[in-house]
């Protein structure tokens, strides 16, 4: 029986993949911001009023979905300005640099890496520090995640997985599947070990870039 939906991986870096359910959900995450001009007929969409004809006054504080913030953001026209969510601000960047493994990323934001990469689309003087923290956080947590996925065969890993962001959960599942496939192969229950779909999709993407 064929699957009704074949999972599509999220985009890389600042690019979104609009066929990816993860990216669609991530684009609904809210950004704090401010209306730099009156915004007509957006009050209901942003839960700022009851009537569809109501406009949002200039200077109003907003909670804007990422997809809408990217559409309205224009450095020349100054329609809206956006602020950094607290987890990407300097105080939290200091926590991550001290020990990224202690942070419950899923509680702070289930799409920490993807959402943080999308923030680089907005002009912000802290963008270099944000990008560096995202990379360092991923590097610091990656080894522990993969080590845990390879050394927790048939064990309850719910407490560990609960603290991971969605990208980390996907990596953990890939590690667990790789371990399970190896165990089956070692017991003679599988004819061969195949590359994971994540590796295969990455290879296809690199080939497409070369051909293009």
Automatic annotation (TrEMBL):
Q: Which residues form the GINS subunit domain?
A: 89-185
Q: Where in the cell is it found?
A: Chromosome; Nucleus
Fetch the InterPro entries from UniProt: GINS_A (IPR021151), GINS_bundle-like_dom_sf (IPR036224), GINS_Psf3 (IPR010492), GINS_Psf3_sf (IPR038437), PSF3_N (IPR055221)
| One record GO biological process | mitotic DNA replication initiation
Q: Provide the primary localization.
A: nucleus
According to the entry, every stretch annotated as the DNA replication complex GINS protein PSF3 N-terminal domain falls at: 20-72
Mind listing the UniProt keywords for this protein, alphabetically?
Chromosome, DNA replication, Nucleus
Q: What cellular component terms from Gene Ontology apply here?
A: GINS complex
Source organism, top-level taxon: Eukaryota
* Function of the protein: Required for correct functioning of the GINS complex, a complex that plays an essential role in the initiation of DNA replication, and progression of DNA replication forks. GINS complex is a core component of CDC45-MCM-GINS (CMG) helicase, the molecular machine that unwinds template DNA during replication, and around which the replisome is built.
Q: Which family does it belong to?
A: Belongs to the GINS3/PSF3 family.
Assembly: Component of the GINS complex.
Q: What is this protein called?
A: DNA replication complex GINS protein PSF3
């Amino acid at each position: 029986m064929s699957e009704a939906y074949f999972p599509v991986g999220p985009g890389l870096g600042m690019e979104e993949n609009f066929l990816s359910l993860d990216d669609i959900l991530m684009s609904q995450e809210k950004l704090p911001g401010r209306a730099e001009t009156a915004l007509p007929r957006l009050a209901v969409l942003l839960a700022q009023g009851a009537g569809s004809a109501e406009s949002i006054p200039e200077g109003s504080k907003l909670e804007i979905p990422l997809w809408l913030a990217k559409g309205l953001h224009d450095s020349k026209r100054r329609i809206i300005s956006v602020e950094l969510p607290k987890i990407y601000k300097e105080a939290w960047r200091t926590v991550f640099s001290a020990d990224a493994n202690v942070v419950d990323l899923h509680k702070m934001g289930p799409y920490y890496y993807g959402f943080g990469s999308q923030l680089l689309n907005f002009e912000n003087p802290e963008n270099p520090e944000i990008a560096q923290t995202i990379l360092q956080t991923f590097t610091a947590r990656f080894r522990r995640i993969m080590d845990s996925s390879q050394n927790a065969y048939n064990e309850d890993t719910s407490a560990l997985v609960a603290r991971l962001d969605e990208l980390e959960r996907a990596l953990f599942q890939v590690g667990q599947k790789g371990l399970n496939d190896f165990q089956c192969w070692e017991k003679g229950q599988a004819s061969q070990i195949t590359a994971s779909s994540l590796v295969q999709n990455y290879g296809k993407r690199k080939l497409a870039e070369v051909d293009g």
